[in-house]
Amino acid sequence: SPFNFFFYLPVPQNCKKSLEEWIQSSRQNHFGLASLKNLILSKETEVQKEKDSGLPRISGFVQAEENTEKFSDFSDNYTIGVKAGMDLFDPSRKHRIKKLEEALNQLKQEEQKLLDQITLLVCASFRDHQTLSEQFRVSRSGFKDSEEALKLMEPLYREGKKSIKDLIEIRILSLEDRIR
Fold this sequence. Notes:
Layout: H1 19-29, H2 31-52, E1 57-64, E2 78-85, H3 93-159, H4 164-179
Antiparallel strand pairs: 1-2
Helix pairs in contact: 1-3, 2-3, 3-4
């Protein structure tokens, strides 16, 4: 008897995960998306720094010198200071903030596009997997049915109750199911 490869193929199992779980997993493991999220976080920090540049800046300093002749005397050898500054007029600040916010919005739009692409690809793959699994089950069932019909037809042909034409038609159906 010829080698029957069809029964040695493993039966595909149903997906253990739901579509939402596959989408979530794909989004979490996508390196491009993680990179884009880091860029967005970085750009948000830049926007906040630029917005904060209009606030007053305060810096302090301390300086101390040692008197090598008398180590216990520090009364005249230190300086403490505070410096405050504020830009009263910065005409380019508003433009810089607007430019950074536009770049941030563009990155967020790219992130949304990437999320949509990931979702579409995962949905298409999930649908294809389900379709192929169902086609495999149907094909396997059809093959078993045609093999059974062929086994039932052979004794009838030998007894002369069925013609060679009927036997050949069943055999053709069986071969077509194997091909599928």
